[in-house]
Design a protein that fits this description.
Layout: H1 2-7, H2 10-42, E1 47-48, H3 58-75, H4 78-86, H5 97-122, H6 128-135, H7 150-157, H8 161-166, H9 171-188, E2 192-193, H10 207-217, H11 228-233, H12 243-257
Antiparallel strand pairs: 1-2
Helix pairs in contact: 2-3, 2-9, 3-7, 5-9
């Protein structure tokens, strides 16, 4: 892969990026739906977090916005590729496996910090309008993972540029960032409780609960998969933050049925 990246032209890089980002978006989305709508409910494990219905047209809108994000992420690979072509960044040559593993761990932490900072900025009054399209999905679906305004896609998609200027990473470590990022993002937008025995949302791997609360409340829980940035910055939502909204909906359903 390293030889392909260094020897490819800009058009080949963009095409490969479109195939890569489009492929992982649909693959993770389909696997998510298979698990959360069929396999896990069939064995009685876990359950839906927000029982309110997904409005008509939401999934179609999410797919359309995500297609634009895939185009931005895919074509945007010319920027890290450009850093390599200019000699401003380099790829590690045959690094040992343990170095690649450490690099992946460091990049995952950086991804959390980068996402939190940009996500918090997108909730400020200056940039909120660019984040509003994503929050039209109050009840989330796996197809909302890339459902961004182009400005938001650009902000979130530049995560590897600064690290590349500071260190010669393995190509596999760099490739792991979008893979893990979309995996975590898909979990966060699954609207499914994968850890039903964990009694609150603060557990480290309860990203689905934390992000469900963020969409339901449109505030707090700005972190990605892990909770450490919200805990450090005091922006973590309480576990019952959406309970009143969901209870109100249940009451309305009861009145309608009556």
């Amino acid at each position: 892969m390293r030889d392909f990246i260094l020897g490819a032209n800009a058009g080949q890089i963009m095409l490969a990026g479109l195939i890569f980002f489009g492929g992982i978006y649909f693959a993770f989305g389909l696997v998510n739906l298979l698990l959360t709508r069929h396999l896990l409910p069939a064995i009685g494990y876990g359950g839906v977090l927000d029982p309110r219905p997904v409005p008509a047209g939401q999934v179609r809108r999410e797919l359309g916005q995500s297609a634009l994000s895939v185009a931005i992420f895919g074509c945007g690979l010319v920027f890290p590729w450009g850093l390599l072509q200019l000699g401003w960044a380099r790829l590690a040559i045959d690094p040992p496996w343990w170095q690649t593993a450490i690099e992946i761990a460091v990049l995952l932490v950086w991804n959390e910090v980068h996402f939190y900072l940009n996500h918090w900025l997108l909730h400020t009054r200056w940039l909120r309008r660019f984040h509003a399209p994503h929050h039209r999905s109050v009840v989330v679906t796996p197809w909302a993972t890339y459902s961004f305004h182009p400005v938001e896609a650009v902000m979130l998609g530049n995560v590897i540029l600064l690290p590349m200027l500071l260190h010669d990473f393995s190509v596999w470590a760099l490739a792991a960032v979008p893979l893990f990022s979309l995996l975590f993002n898909s979990i966060g937008h699954s609207n499914y409780d994968f850890l039903p025995d964990a009694h609150h949302d603060r557990w480290w791997l309860n990203g689905a609960r934390r992000h469900h609360l963020h969409h339901a409340c449109f505030t707090g829980n700005y972190g990605f998969m892990f909770p450490f940035m919200d805990r450090l910055c005091g922006t973590a939502l309480p576990p019952n933050a959406a309970a009143e909204r969901i209870a109100t909906w249940r009451q309305q359903q009861g009145h309608d049925a009556a």
